[in-house]
Specification:
about 375 residues; Carbamate kinase; Archaeosine Trna-guanine Transglycosylase, Chain: A, domain 4; eight-stranded mixed sheet; five-stranded mixed sheet; 13 strands; about 40% helix; binds glutamic acid
């Protein structure tokens, strides 16, 4: 199981509030955070991309504001988050700095990971940060999120971030070490399930409720997160985060429940593009671009001869060859109106034509699912 961690090129680590803040006082557990930062540095030294999704803003902020430790109204939680997020971001900045790493704060709401245009923006920004060697530290944008547009728990937010970023592995560091056959606190016969290959109704029934005072998400939201993750080709682990160096412990085979994904994230994303999205339009491409696509390249505006439909940035479009045959589908990096203006042109002319510097590709190869490939293509 632990190979899933060592083989992962990109992983998301979710940290619950109970790990970061003392239960009684709400004080930051800085020694623990220092040990986590050392683990993250070690993973990055192995060449992995690491994204942290961290709770803790409410737990840290309510102490500063003198609010009660439980039973807060939504707006009181949001006020606490506004204060605590500063401390939380600062704590990561400091902890990462001592390992020569840069922390980047990303605050997201549900819409940012589900609405396609905002999804693309968030994805591109996080991708750029990873490329620059920074460690994105994500939390929900609690202060602006109303009940309709909030996740409310970081387990599902972490799963969305993992799928959005095509991560190979998601680790939920928790105050429990995994999923048990029955509530471990009350049932002496409860045993830990080391691997879940399929999330059956029986598995869901085992989730019960292991929520604690400080963390909103119990086992139920963790199973929800696992469903999102495995469907997108991301393996997920639930493991005890309360120990020092929890990621090193997991790599050494610590107790955990692993939810295994069958496909890899790139294949799962391509399947999603090919099947799940309703195309909003189409682009017709010339013979040269067809050859390039079949050889695994991105679609540049120069190779496009016509566009149709009413699509927005991030919408799915059908890609048609010179004889109008469907070659596949992809997500457009431009709106229909902008695409129409740049087709047939070299990518370096885009900024002169549109007045802004957009992406070089009309459809990036990662955002494309083709029906067939040349056998010699990668
Ligand atoms: N976003 C909340 C916070 O930072 C936590 C939500 C959760 O723990 O799931 O306090």
């Amino acid at each position: 199981m632990r190979q899933k961690l060592s083989n992962a090129g990109r992983l998301v680590v979710k940290i619950g509030s109970a790990l970061l803040a003392e239960r009684e006082t709400g004080a930051l557990k800085s020694d623990w955070l220092a040990s986590l930062a050392a683990d993250v540095a070690a993973l990055k030294a192995e060449g992995k991309d690491v994204i942290v999704v961290s709770s803790g803003s409410i737990a840290l902020g309510r102490r500063v504001l003198g609010l009660a430790s439980h039973g807060l109204k939504l707006e009181e939680s949001q006020a606490a988050a506004a204060v605590g997020q500063i401390d939380l971001a600062h704590a990561y900045e400091e902890a990462f700095k001592s390992h020569g790493m840069v922390a980047a704060q990303i605050l997201l709401t549900l819409g940012d990971t589900e609405e396609r245009r905002r999804y693309l923006n968030a994805r591109n920004t996080i991708e750029t940060l990873l490329g620059l060697g920074a460690v994105p530290v994500v939390n929900e944008n609690d202060t602006v999120a109303t009940s309709e547009i909030r996740y409310g728990d970081n387990d599902r937010l972490a799963a969305r971030v993992a799928t959005m970023m095509s991560a190979d592995c998601l680790v939920l560091l928790s105050d429990v070490d995994g999923l048990y056959t029955a509530p471990p606190g009350t049932d002496p016969d409860a045993t830990l399930i080391p691997e879940v290959r399929e999330i059956t109704p029986e598995i869901e029934a085992m989730a019960g409720d292991t929520g604690t005072e400080l963390s909103r998400g119990g086992m139920v939201t963790k199973i929800e997160a696992a469903k999102l993750a495995v469907a997108a080709g991301t393996h997920m682990a639930i493991t005890q985060g309360g120990v020092m160096h929890p990621l090193a412990e997991l790599a050494d085979g610590a107790r955990a429940t692993w939810f295994t994904a069958r496909a890899d994230p790139v294949a799962a994303r391509k399947r999603w593009i090919a099947g799940a999205l309703e195309p909003r339009g189409s682009v017709t491409i010339d013979a040269g671009a067809t050859r390039a696509l079949l050889a695994g390249k991105s679609l540049l505006p120069a190779g496009v001869t016509a566009v149709s439909g009413a699509f927005d940035r991030g919408d799915a479009v059908v890609i048609r060859g010179p004889a109008n045959e469907e070659l596949g589908r992809g997500l457009s990096a431009y709106t229909r109106a902008d695409a129409e203006r740049i087709i047939g042109h070299k990518s370096r002319e885009i900024s002169d034509i549109l007045g802004y510097r957009g992406r070089t590709e009309l459809i990036h190869r990662d955002d494309m699912a083709l029906k067939r490939k040349r056998p010699d293509a990668e």
